[in-house]
Amino acid sequence: MLGHLRPRLAPAAGGASRRDIPLREKTHPPFVPFPALVVYLTGVLELAGAVGLVLPATRRAAGICLALLFVLMLPANIHAALAGATLAGEAATPLWQRIPEQVLYIGVALWAAGVAGGRSGHTTSASTAVPVP
Fold first, then answer.
1. Quick one: average pLDDT of 78-105?
2. In CA terms, which of 36, 90, 106, 126 is 20 to 30 Å from 97?
3. Which of the 8 DSSP states describes residue 118?
4. Rounded-to-integer distance, Cα 14 and Cα 69, Å
5. What secondary structure letter does DSSP report for 4?
C-alpha cells in the first residue's frame, strides 16, 4: 500500500542520519567552509526534499532540487573515498560503488519529479482515473 512512497521517502533516511556530525565533518573536502553547517544544511535539505516529493504540488521542484543537491554532494563523497575517511569505524563507500549509486539517486529524484523516465509528475486521483476492464 505504501510502496509508492518508498522512493519519495528515501532521502529522509539520509537526512535523519546526520546524528554523527563530528564524524561527517571529516568527509568534507578542505575547500568547503563550515563543514558542520554544511552537514546540518544537507540533512535539512534532504528531509525537506523528501517531504516535497510526497506532496503533489511540490513534487517536481523537490525532485529537481534533490537531484541538484545529490550532484553538489558528489565532491564530498569522492573526497571521503580518496582520503580514506571513516564513519563510525567504517570506511567510506568505495568510488566504484559510490559514483553509480549517486547517479542512481539523481535518476530516482528526477524520475519522482516527473522529469525523467516518462513519468508525468502528476498523480491521478481516484475520481479521474480510467477504470480498467
1. 84
2. 36
3. T
4. 12
5. G
pTM: 0.66
Q: How many CB atoms lie within 10 A of CB 107?
A: 15
Q: Which grid cell sits at 112? A: 519522482
- H helices then E strands: how many in the chain? 5, 2
Rounded-to-integer distance, Cα 25 and Cα 41, Å: 12
* DSSP code at position 129: P
E strand map for 1-133:
86-87, 90-91
d(C-alpha 73, C-alpha 60), whole Å:
20
pLDDT in tens, 112-126: 999 877 655 455 444
Strand-pair partners of 87: 90
pLDDT of residue 53: 92
Is-contact 109 67, C-beta < 8 A? yes
Contact at 8 Å (CB) between 111 and 119?
yes
Decide: residue 123, CB within 10 A, 0-12 exposed, 13-18 middle, 19+ buried: exposed
Q: Which three cell numbers stand for residue 89?
A: 569505524
Rounded Cα distance between 130 and 37, Å, is 48
